[in-house]
Amino acid sequence: MANCFYVGTRNGVKGEILVIEEALIVGVFASGVRMSIPILFAALGENIAERSGVLNLGVEGMMLLGAFSGFMGTYLTGNIVVGLLMAMGGAAALAALMAFLSVSIRTNQLAAGLAVWLLGVGLAALLYRLSFGVVTIAPSIHSFNPVEIPFLSQIPFAGPVLFNHDPMIYLALLMIPVTHIFLFKTNLGLKIRTVGENPKQADTLGVNVYRIRYLAIIIGGAFAGLGGAYLSLVITGSFSENITGGQGWIALAVVIFGRWKPLGILIGALIFGMVNAFQLGLQSTGTTIPFQFLLMLPYLLPIAILAVTYKRSIAPAALAVPYTRGER
Amino acid sequence: MTSLPTHSILINKINLRSMVPFLTGGLAFVVGGIILSSAGVDPIHAYQIMIKGAFGSVRALADTLVKTTSLLILGLAVAVAFKCKIWNIGAEGQLYFGALGGLLAGLSFIGAVPILAPIVVIIAGFAFGSLFSMIPAALKVKLGVNEVIVTVLLNFVALLFISYLLHGPLKAPGFLSYSPNIFPQSELPILLSNTRLSAGILIAAGSAIGVFLLMSKTKIGFEIRSVGANIKAARYSGMNVAKSILITMGISGGLAGMAGAILVSGVQHRLIEGISPGYGFIAVIVALLGKQNPVGVTIVAFFFSALLAGSEVMYRTLGVPVALAQTLQALVLVFVLIGELFLRWHPKWSKG
Fold first, then answer.
1. Which of the four, A151, A269, A297, B162, has the lowest number of CB atoms within 10 Å?
2. Which residues in chain A are closer than 8 Å to B31, comparing Cβ atoms?
């Protein structure tokens, strides 16, 4: 693999090549961590929704609306925290629509998710254009400054890769144990999982299936909003209509790959982030491989992963099954 | 009796209930109007321009029909798959592969043969789209991989592959990343002079009839519907479910590819990167709203094409973004889905 990094360094001196190589590898890994964050947020949220038995295909739309509303909030107030709250709110509103369609009306969950996806994509593009018109230079915002974690950031290699990032990354990583404890150690988490495995039983035990599913979907939406906001507020500092580029769909694959467990999801998100950073790093070295083929990797990888892992994965038993109280 | 499928009602009963989707769908335009007026655009004026832009002149109507050609065929493509409960969201990518197939045929020696050439171009489009759809179909049949995510992601792969070809091997001389033009003999004949309305619309109409006959009168169609209605029952009754899924995806991807070939042969006469402005995604809404039946798909495809054509005029005259059309289409779907609540209201729900 290291061979790849020699491509494009047109310098015969061995020592210099090694220096370039190490800097590049550290850079690739650090940006790999960064690039896994939107997917990580979105997949952790989708996992909560799916654990409650609702397959929300609208992740991409919620991420995109989150990316827009987060950008808009930050642009208008100059406060990135307000932006993040707006991102969560915007995406959660779309998630509430998903909940209304799939839980209250019991629309086919796939159809409802597709509707939410397309609505999110349309709304984000429309509102952005209505707000800014056709612009040659995209408006941008000032993003977070990286926060170095004392001492830890000084560790060779691991320091710059893991401990010299913006605060959102630490929040995302913190969400892994948080969602794990939430799902597996709290009363509410138990309710969510029961509703996703056997809603009828949950109902007879006095759990309000509808309310739990609403809650799980809306929490999932807020997470997707954070993932989208990470793209617009941190990675690019601006918004564009295709800023998510299918990452919401990749997040859905990552949930399956992670077997509906936060730690598994982290691994899946990291693999994606690393591959994406690797292909971008390879592009910047001026390789002869056409860039389109490199850009395909982040899309082909989840397909390959699904092909390998799909049969062994066990989804929540009631996933994508609408629940009607009082029906057999 | 578990959940009702979202799409089984309407078809037989023509009464007051059949008006519900139109009424609730209309609410989408109210919401769109609110968004417009909050952005300082007079919604009544905007919608007037939209209607004029879609139907106001022969040219406008022709433009609407050009778009109907694409949306109808793609809507049918997605609807056939949905009928078999295969969630093919990959029509956009299949369209681009079909466009590639049509282009290659139109550039080859066959492309210069009069009369025969357009037929070969269309068939090549069908074949390429069909072949590309075999990837998710094989993954589904062999490994049980759900097709939704795979088909969505393959759209990106297809677009990148076409982008590579147009920047590299298939690039015409010059600055822009276009392919060379196909032979004039490969172009579909124009039906209405001074417009872009080609014989593609006839192919689209023929496809609607063909899909109707296929689904309702043939053994294959019966098997597709049986697998879609109840895959277990179909399997127990001795049907080859895997074969049905492969055939369904082949037809679905093939139709989508044909839509791509018609864009090359009937409209652009070459392949460009943005040859489809997301028709393959709009087709998902068309299929869902059209209740997956050819008549419904035709009506929705025409209506949505008018919306697209009208919104382009609206953009040119008022500067209202074209994304309005996309938003309205998604909103129509949302409101119609909500409207179905009234169609199958039963008292249990109100207690929920």
1. A151
2. none
Q: Where are the alpha helices (DSSP H) in A133-261?
A: 158-162, 167-185, 187-197, 199-204, 209-229, 247-257
C-alpha dihedral sign at B97, B99, B101, B107: negative
When pLDDT is cut at 50, 70 and 90, the band that residue B345 belongs to is low
Q: Which residues make Cβ contacts (< 8 Å) with residue A76, sequence separation at least 6?
A: none
Q: Which two tokens stand for residue A109?
A: 């969950």
Beta carbons of A292 and B160 less than 8 angstroms apart: yes
Q: Which domains does chain B have, with CATH numbers?
A: 66-342 (1.10.3470)
Check CB contact of B1 with chain A, cutoff 8 Å.
yes
Q: Which of A210, A325, A328 sits opposite B348 (nearest CB)?
A: A325
User: Are B149 and A249 inside 8 Å of each other by CB?
Assistant: yes
pLDDT of residue B124: 98
Nearest in space to A323 (alpha carbons), one of A45, A115, A116, A102:
A102
**Residue scoring higher pLDDT (B58 or A23):** B58
Report CA Rg, chain B: 21
Q: Is B197 on the interface with A (CB under 8 A)?
A: no
Single-letter residue type at A111: A
ipTM of the complex: 0.90
Contact (CB, 8 A) for B86 and B253? no
DSSP B168-179: TTTPPSSSS--P
- B6 at A interface, C-beta within 8 A: yes
Residue A326 has pLDDT above 80, yes or no: no
B205 Cβ contact partners less than 8 Å away, ≥ 6 residues apart: B72
B168 in contact with A, Cβ within 8 Å: yes
Q: What is the mean pLDDT of residues B327-346?
A: 84
pLDDT per residue over A162-200, tens digit each?
Answer: 777 788 888 999 999 999 999 999 999 999 999 999 999
Task: Provide the 3-class DSSP secondary structure of residue B49.
Answer: helix
Task: Please count the residues of chain B.
Answer: 352
pLDDT reported for residue A40 = 97
Q: Is the confidence at residue B325, as pLDDT, over 70?
A: yes
Q: Which residues contact B154 (CB under 8 A, 6 or more apart)?
A: A299, A303, B90, B93, B132, B135, B136
Q: For B20-43, give the DSSP string.
A: HHHHHHHHHHHHHHHHHHHTT--H
Domains of chain A: 32-132+162-312 (1.10.3470)
Distance from CA of B50 to the nearest CA of A (A): 16
Inter-chain contact A125–B157, Cβ cutoff 8 Å?
no
Mean pLDDT throughout B318-346?
A: 86
What DSSP assignment string belongs to A1-49?
Answer: -GGGGGTT-----HHHHHHHHHHHHHHHHHHHHHHHHHHHHHHHHHHHH
Q: What are phi and psi of A325, to 5 degrees?
A: -65, 135
DSSP-derived secondary structure for B256-314: HHHHHHHIIIIIISS--TTSSSSHHHHHHHHHHHTTTSHHHHHHHHHHHHHHHHHHHHH
The pLDDT confidence band at residue B12, using thresholds 50, 70 and 90, is very low
Distance (Å) of CA B261 to CA B67, B140, B277: 14, 26, 15
